[in-house]
Structure of Succinyl-diaminopimelate desuccinylase:
Amino acid sequence: MSESELDLTLDAAELTARLVDIPSVSGDEKALADLVENALRGLAHLTVDRHGNNVVARTHLGRAERVVLAGHLDTVPIADNVPSRLDENDVLWGCGTTDMKSGVAVQLRIAATVPEPNRDLTFVFYDQEEVAADLNGLGKVAAAHPDWLTGDFAVLLEPSDAEVEGGCQGTLRVLLRTKGERAHSARSWMGANAIHAASPILAKLAAYEPRRPVIDGLEFHEGLNAVRIEGGVANNVIPDRCTVTVNFRYAPDRSEADALAHVREVFADCDIDEFVVDDSSPGALPGLSHPAAAAFMEAVGGHAMPKFGWTDVSRFSALGVPAVNYGPGDALLAHKVDERVETKAILHCEERLRAWLTS
Amino acid sequence: MSESELDLTLDAAELTARLVDIPSVSGDEKALADLVENALRGLAHLTVDRHGNNVVARTHLGRAERVVLAGHLDTVPIADNVPSRLDENDVLWGCGTTDMKSGVAVQLRIAATVPEPNRDLTFVFYDQEEVAADLNGLGKVAAAHPDWLTGDFAVLLEPSDAEVEGGCQGTLRVLLRTKGERAHSARSWMGANAIHAASPILAKLAAYEPRRPVIDGLEFHEGLNAVRIEGGVANNVIPDRCTVTVNFRYAPDRSEADALAHVREVFADCDIDEFVVDDSSPGALPGLSHPAAAAFMEAVGGHAMPKFGWTDVSRFSALGVPAVNYGPGDALLAHKVDERVETKAILHCEERLRAWLTS
């Protein structure tokens, strides 16, 4: 076994350490993608495709259902926390240990050790998840080769502490701009104050009562918030412009269009000069009522939780594939200098997925 | 008459041109202050004192009243508008023509040509009016030699289009800071939004009804305005901090302390985390009921107007000397590249002041 090959006979924890020791900061995933592709090409039961630094491997056993196991290869920038380090409590430290090379290791172990799964399998390894949405490798594969991603159900092995996180909330960001007229503040009645004109906007936000709809048994929790406000010209000038940046996080029973219509309605009587849609990403329904999802829930145990933040499960949802997050590690440790994962959590996830796919 | 002397036999318009051609941008007034001092020392009826680049000249005739004529020597930076230029319509163009070398020329002409005024006279020429308040030469003389500035009434020869502007409004700037707690905007209920917490502040501002009190026959006009607002951490973070900068311009029947108490009261129930006084300058009462002022009004004609912005008349007011602005030129042309003054306006002001002081 040379330095230039991944040894898929290592257990998932050892394999995670090996993956962490191969840097793959967003935009620099080629070395790791090459190793993953080569390792998968050595497995006779899989066909392997590649698009850029995205690798997709599939079984073709003619099973009644197909499930997708997906994970990203990239990490945030290394913060002096590579190579990995295993401490005396079997905790593995290092950049990507939790987000999400432990999940990738589990994918690779399932690929290597389950040649005859009870459902056809698709393994997706993609790049640039940690950067701007338009660079995201999963999005690029979805655009170029949507047929590679078809399936009945998908599991993203993002860190979820081995709990199932179903669906995800959508996010919409709008800029609300009010207009006024400049004047010297000593003669303020000669102008019109754009910051004062934003008062009804803040009043609507402060009074907003977010919905908490239950979907597929999961209680989501919406939120409508100002995330920025900016206005002012000089300390003696009545400002002619004020901008409130509003972020709406919405449950997946609303479409992108519904969400936008709702926000427009909330601020309908606020005398807004410019209403700019700055960013929009749809939510994803949990899809837990699908038979493949139900079987998955039964195999992994526990109860599903709603995913409040936006994740790539939404990309699968847009392709008509219900998806959940399920992976080792605590998401709150992601992107931190002291990122780490318990090795037993990695092995637990691997075992639960194998149980689901071989029972 | 050498280049190094001012010729006070020139008429006030010619003298203005001569003064404009001697650059005296704030901080660089020494050359002009030297010329002014030397010219005044040549006048036997005056005693002359100097403090830094501030020159004070006084008669000592034992008159029942003493009036002060004051003006600043400095200008804003030259904008390729020096030397001065007299056009075919007798309009004088150049930096300082209106603000306020024409006023200074009138002061110098009165000093030179009215050796036996009906009231004792004090002429004040000071530096650094166009820059930070703590550099202001009038303020420095007031601190070091308040006796030089005593009087019954003062006229600042700032451009007022030869209308009398009485008193000035005070100005108070406060920072109102609200506090929240950061959280990811997808889980906004885990935090507290400091921008939303500023909503009651903006509501108070938008609903505020300013007073328009009549003082000494002049209608002032207050104003309470947000001049800046800032809040926000990142587009996906509930902000923990928001700052509203509020400017209160108040009529001179309120003291600084009254004004501050009023602003505190307006926002008393707004749940403000920090209330910071950022700037405060008191207003000045018009003092038009004083006999010297009444005689002045009668001599110059027209009707007095309230001064809404803050001016150095407030410094005289603080010394117990009622003061007004009265000078040639349009204040709206001050600080502009196309700054200019009609020569007849300069001569008119000189004549009106002479009439008052010799009748």
